[in-house]
Amino acid sequence: MAKYVELAEQIKDQIRNDVWEIGCKLPSLRKQTELSGFSLMTVMNAYQLLESQGWVVSHSRSGYVVAPKVPDSIAPAANHQNQLQISESIDINDFVFDILQASRKKSVTNFGFAYPDATLYPQNRVNKSLMKTAREMPTSHALDNLPPGNETLRKIIAKRYASQGITVNPDEIVITAGALEALNLSLQSVTQAGDWVVVESPAFYGALQALERLNLRALFVKTHPKDGIDLNALEQALSTHPVKACWLMTNFQNPLGFTLSDEKKKRLIELLSAHSVYLVEDDVYNELYYGNTKPLPAKAFDTKGMTLHCSSFSKSLVAGFRIGWVAAGKNALKIQKLQLMSTLSTSAPVQLTLANYLSTRHYENHLKQLRRKLEQRKFQTWQLLRSTMPKEVDVHYSTGGYFIWVALPTHINATELYRLALKEDISIAPGEMFATNQQFNHCFRLNASLEISEKVERALKRLSVLMTKLI
Ligand SMILES: Cc1ncc(COP(=O)(O)O)c(C=O)c1O
């Protein structure tokens, strides 16, 4: 056994035996070198191995911290019956609409919101680009920016793919109104009403709404908070139903937070292409990683052009501009035609503004700051929750993005918690938004991008009190 594996095994044993408890900081690299007698390199490799296996999470300020276990209340049941669930029709939009509307009041501390805290966006710089665009906009701007969208912007996006070793021709990219339009048009381009589509369970509610809108039938595949979609269950779905498309997230999944390993992304692509099934890949959080490298999309492993990769600037730069895209490969033309029948195109001045902003060096600097702040805030929120929540509540932490998934004991309804909290101007996203069955009704998603001000701290503590009351 390699030395670093040996050391990692020793530390796992210590964690199992509560020598190092959840949330507790492991000895620094240097200290561990002294304690264990192994070299610094061995210790570093051991810590990295533990991190890749989900035993610890690294945090720039606190070093390596013991990660929470994936508790039974969060992890899906191991029995096979739950692996696959079938839904002939979906009816979730009204519920999601009501929840989102109710949380819109300015006074609400919005832990239910799907976007990062707006103060994290570089508003001044973006405004400067907006003003410059307004001054210099050519009279032909409406025509120049029709589908597939602004050429400079598409070239910038293609270069960002190239920086990860992924070749995407700018002509395969279609600019859309946020990722949501990209995802919806992508799904529409590869399905017809009544077709079967594979979705994760739990899934981003936008996927469920799209299936409802397009009258599609769903196969919900068991998805684990740490490892993501269950590939055996996926295989079962593919071999028992004539599936046309699979819509899922590979990086920092909403609501659970996991990122699929590269190996799993590769296997996923192999499975889907063996059954000639399109992948609609939702990758809106890929810039919000905490480590040193941006995770690859599954599209990076696709040699057959069956992946429609959708993303946007909504989570990383500016939410209100509503600019996203799909790298649609051979489906790009079909998507443009569908766009012609719906929104025609996204706003020309906004596309030009983004093209202007992204041509500067500001975006990379902003992203670095954004990632650092999100990591800090999420970690602080997690610590605060852990220290105030009743012990029956499980908090699932993931290293990326800004969501925390919380599970109450299974007999407690998180929608009830949502209603109680809203009366006190606190909002959460109850688990019922992310599935069409009752399976996640005891869970909720919490937005951890807010700065821990007095108001936010009070709201988190209040949530804990309400949970205690319900339990
Ligand atoms: C997982 C996921 N996909 C897509 C979207 C939509 O992104 P956009 O605002 O760019 O349309 C969201 C927004 O909440 C999301 O959370």
UniProtKB/TrEMBL annotation:
Presence of the UniProt keyword Transcription regulation in the record: yes
Protein name: PLP-dependent aminotransferase family protein
UniProt record similarity statement: In the C-terminal section; belongs to the class-I pyridoxal-phosphate-dependent aminotransferase family.
InterPro entries, per database record: Aminotransferase_I/II_large, HTH_trans_reg/aminotransferase, PyrdxlP-dep_Trfase, PyrdxlP-dep_Trfase_major, PyrdxlP-dep_Trfase_small, Tscrpt_reg_HTH_GntR, WH-like_DNA-bd_sf, WH_DNA-bd_sf
GO molecular function ontology, one term from the record: transaminase activity
UniProt keyword list: Aminotransferase, DNA-binding, Pyridoxal phosphate, Transcription, Transcription regulation, Transferase
Xref: Pfam families: Aminotran_1_2 (PF00155), GntR (PF00392)
Segments forming domain HTH gntR-type: 1-69
